[in-house]
Each structure stands twice: as structure tokens, then as C-alpha cells.
Amino acid sequence: MPASANDHHQAQKRHGELCAALHHHNYLYHVLDRPEIPDAEYDRLFKELLQIEIDHPELGTPESPSRRIGAPALDKFEPVRHTHPMLSLENAFNDQEMREFDARIKRFLATDAPIEYVCEMKMDGVAVELVYRDGVLVTASTRGDGAVGEKITENVKTIPSIPLVLNRPCPEILEIRGEVFMDLADFQALNRNREEEALATFANPRNATAGSLRQLDSSITASRPLKIFCYGVGEVAGELPPTHGQMLEKLQRLGLRVNLDWTRVQPDIEGVLAYYRELSEQRDRLPFEIDGMVVKVNHRSLQHELGEKTRTPRWAVAYKFPPRQAVTTVEDIQLQVGRTGAVTPVAHLKPVEVSGVIVSRASLHNWDEIERLDVRIGDQVVVERAGDVIPDVVKVLAEKRTGSERAVPLPVKCPACGEPITRLEGEVVPRCNGLSCPAQLKESIKHFASRGGMDIDGLGDRYIDQLLSLGKVSSVADLYFLSTEDLFEFDRMGDKLAEKLLGAIAASKNRPLPRFLAALGIRHVGQHLAKVLAHQFGSLEELMRASREDLQAVHEIGPQAADSVVAFFSDARNRQVLDRLKEAGVVPTAEEKRAGGPLSGKTFVFTGSLSLFSRNEAKEMVETLGARATGSVSKKTDYLVAGEEAGSKLEKAQKLGIVILNEEEFLQMMKERT
Ligand code: IVH
């Protein structure tokens, strides 16, 4: 064998060994959190790999650990034993039970003196433990059975309100207990998005939180709007103040999120009862769900003296709020067809009052839920308002059945257009695939005309129904071709009203681009992404020309949204509607591209392996200066930044005569312009 071939052979063999070893250690370290070698040894292996790849570039495959970023998804959660068990709380349901709690404490402490309590909100979320060693978050886990929970460290690290490092000085070991939850508005937005995407909706914010924390792929958790309130500690090696109230303040100073605004120290049990009434009144106005008030003995030395029973401490109690539940009858189960064809069942109820609100409809979420509850028309059910005015059916009172109840079979045909309904494997939501389904059309017109979209004043359900039943519109574009004569066919429609409606439609012709994009109802593109797209591409035409790579190169646009935008604009029917909108004079006002920046209007492409900065960092740098980063080279590209082993993009850029920069030159340019 010639010397060079031998050399290559050796390198290839060592490269393979290193890849396997690094892959293994990466897994032990990032996924299982159980490294078997010291970090320095890992770094040595990594450097050796990089050197081989520099000497033999052909060996640097995309699978090489040198290209890996972040932790891969887990295939299961590891168990974690809590140093101190995570206890639960005894419940009290009225003032008398609270007074008994106070009396028990006094008896146990053999005192008549009033006991000072600290009152906190009882957050309705999911309990977690965060372990900080030397101020660094090392492990996060769920409560589990109290003794052993599940390790969810990677997921928890994606929650912005959870600090990865504490402010110093801090205890050497600090185990924090807190509740992870979702604000009501975020929960509702999440469910709206899921509904639009034909995914199963969550029954309440607590379920949404639990589902978000139990993800094997932490990037999913990262996309969910989770928050935390810390309310206690487990193991502590270091000093903490003498009262619980002061300790909470200390936790906040350390950088942890604490619900101090609603935490009150009360001198005695009567003060506690008064604060309970205050909180009960506030309950409906809060941005999140609470299910009661937690009352704790304030002095930590007394807590210690009181100790705990098997599962609950003697020094704390949960004073619960009455559940917002009522019993009523299911009069009908109807199917709703959404804008994307998702068919969702809704229970129509005999109207009933649930804590001050009359409810007559309940969401059944999806077919799995109907099967799980076994809910039938005629059933008596328990409904509960959980974070939403539209309640959920929580339970069927099967013992009250008379035999005349009717089960609702899984629909085979769309109730609106009669087209077959399909339920894809792995999806819980059945869908109508009718291309001209009036229910889908109605929902898309409603969405188009809505406040967040084209904001067509006065075009609500009633008129849309009439437009559809009279066959006046078959797409949103037809709205702009309506005449007063068309509207005169409506019930009770006079000159003035018709003119007003047509005026409102005409007034929407030049809405800003972000609104127009949001109004189109492209899947995965809500108001926020519509703004992002409008900013980046500046005009509808530019956006329509964007490739999947161009789109994905935009910060915040993931593969799903990118695919969906491309699919939307390549659909012939959508293009026809867009042409007709243009013909009608619907021209969204162009977005000013990130104006003002020193590199305003310039386009960058990054290629090859970058060693001085990540692709995301590079993108952010150019975006702050007013330029944009795209994924593919075209005549419109101004600069190509080429790292090691740049391939076809570099060749293409050379052919097109585009300015090519290496990493240092690029950084120099960024420095000069800032
Ligand atoms: S203290 C030993 N404080 O309620 C003290 N718990 O039923 C144990 N919770 O598992 C908990 N807000 O998930 C405490 N301010 C608060 C709380 C709270 C919500 C939850 C927590 C716990 C459950 C106890």
C-alpha cells in the first residue's frame, strides 16, 4: 500500500473510533447526565477528532460529533430521588376547619399565644424541584410519588423564568420547590393554535403544563409559555433567614421567581381568614388559575418543631376554593368544522350557572375525550369552569342513566359539506377534506375579516352566513366584488347598511402587510409570525418567491412554518385567490424593511462550518444592523460568508460574482458598522 493511502486508512480508522467514543460520552453526559470520563478527557478526544478532520476534510461527515449542537431527545425520563420527600398538603374547606388547624398547632406547641402565618396563593400547576449546586442549576425533577420523581432538567432549562445560575453569595446546596404553570391567556392562545392545526386541545392550563414538561424533546417544551413561582426549599447547605416570609424574599434576591405580590404575613388565624376572602374575590381577575390559599406557620423554627406526618406537614394547610362545578344535562353533541377542516365535538347543555356564569356549551376537545368520558346525548354530567368561560365536561354521572341516552358515533361525513371525514394515524382530530366545504369557507372568511386580520368592520357571522347561503362568495376575494344589489338580497338590508358594509370592505384594501398575511390563515402563521415574515421579506411578492431555505433562515421560522408557507403559495387555488385579490385592488401596504440600519437592505448567506460564531449569532448580528440572512445564494445575495469546507454555495457565489468573506473579515465588517 502506498504511504499516503496507508495514512488515510489509519486516519479513517481512528476517526471512526473517536466518533463512536464521543457519541457515547455525549449521550452519557447530555442525555443521561452520567458522564464516565472527566471533561478534560472529553475535550482531548474532541480536539483529536477536529485535527483529523482538518487533515482529512473528506472524513468530516455531517454525523460527526464535531457538528453536533445541543442535547438529542431522550427516549425516557430518568428517576430522581428527592433528598427530602416532596410532601403534599392537607385540605381545609371552610373557616371552621381552618380554626381547627390553628387549634391543633397551638396544642402541639403547648401555647395560647397567637400563631403568625404566611399566606400564599395555591398555584394550580405542576410541582417541580430545582437543585442548585454552587449556584448552578444541576437537576430539575417532577414530584412523582413524593420520594422519587422524573428528571426533566433539559426541559426546565428552557423556562425563561428559571435561572440557570443564582445571584451570589448563595448557599452551596439549595433545593428549590415551586409550581410551574401557564397563564390563562397563554393557555388559550396555545389551544387556539392547536385547534387551528387540528391537534388535540388541552382541558386546562394544568394539563397543558404537565404535557409540556413531560416532553422527551426539550425544543417542544421551549415553545410552550411556561412560568414558575417558587414557594419553598428542600435540602439547604448554607444560611437562610428565620421566617418563611423572609426566606421567600431572599429567594427572590437570589434570582428566583416568587409570588411576593400576593404573599401576606398575618399575625393570627383571623387575619388568615380575612385574607382568604380577599383572595376569593380576586380569583376571577387573576391572570392564572389558583385553587386555594396555602397557609404556613411563618417561623421556620416552629415549622421544624411541628414536623411532619407521613405525607403532609403539620405546619401548613391548603384552604381550598370551592370548585367551579355544576351538574347539568347534555342536550346535544354537535360537530364544529374549523377553518382547516378540523372537526371538533361540542356539547350543548341545559343552561346552568357555574359560579356566577351561565353556561350552555362545553368543549369536548376531541374524539378520544368523548370515548374516555363515554359521554352520550341525554347524560347528566359534571361541568367545570377551568380557566375559561367555556367549561369542560369532567365526569358523566353514569348511575343517573335511564337507558334513553344516545352515543355519538365517530362522524364519517362532514356535517357541512357531506365530504368524507378522515382521521390520520396518530392524530386525534378527524378532518373534513372537502375542497369547497362551506363550514371551512365560513371560518376562513371570518378569520380574514377579523380584528387581527383585515379588520372589516361589521362583517360578522350573520352576514357571512347570508353571503354563503346566497352563493355570493366562494373565496375571500369575492368579498371585494360585491355590489349593493348583491347585498339587497339579504334579510333586512337597506341602502345605508349596504353602503356601510361595502365601505368597510373597501377600506380594508390597503391594510399593512403583516395583517394581510395573518388574514390569509396560512397554517402555523399567526399574527406574530406574520409580522416576522413581513419584516423580513418586505412584500408579498418577495415572500411568495422565498424558498424553504430562505424561510428557515429567518429567526423564529421553524421547518413546519417554512413548509406551510411554501405549500400555501404553491397551491394553485390559493394563487388564484391571491390574483383575484390583486385584481380587486387589494394591495397590502409594504412593510418598511428594517430601515435605518447601516446594512439595511443587504442580504447575507452563511455557509460551511463556522468556528468563531454560530449561525444564529451571525444572523442576529446582521439583523441588528438592518440586513437579513437567507439560506440560499441568488443574484440578490450581497455577501457570502464562507467557513471551512464551504461547498456548492461558495461555487455558486463565485460564479455570480458575489462578495465572499471569511469569518474574520465578516467580524471585522460587523465591528466597523456598529
Ligand atoms: S407548599 C410542605 N405552597 O400544592 C409544603 N404548595 O397539595 C408542600 N402548591 O404539591 C407544598 N402552590 O404542587 C405549597 N404556594 C404553595 C403552593 C403549593 C401550589 C401545590 C404543590 C403541592 C401541592 C400540595
Q: Which shape, going by the Cα principal axes?
A: globular
The CATH top-level class label of the largest domain: Alpha Beta
CATH superfamily of the largest domain: DNA ligase/mRNA capping enzyme
User: Uncertain regions: pLDDT < 50 for 5+ in a row?
Assistant: 67-71
Which molecules other than protein and nucleic acid are bound?
Answer: 2-(butylsulfanyl)adenosine
Q: Averaged pLDDT, please?
A: 88
Number of domains: 5
What is the number of E strands? 22
Approximately how much helix is present in the residues? 25-40%
Class from helix and strand fractions:
alpha+beta
Distance between the termini: 56 Å
CATH topology of the largest domain: D-amino Acid Aminotransferase, Chain A, domain 1
Annotated CATH architecture of the largest domain: 2-Layer Sandwich
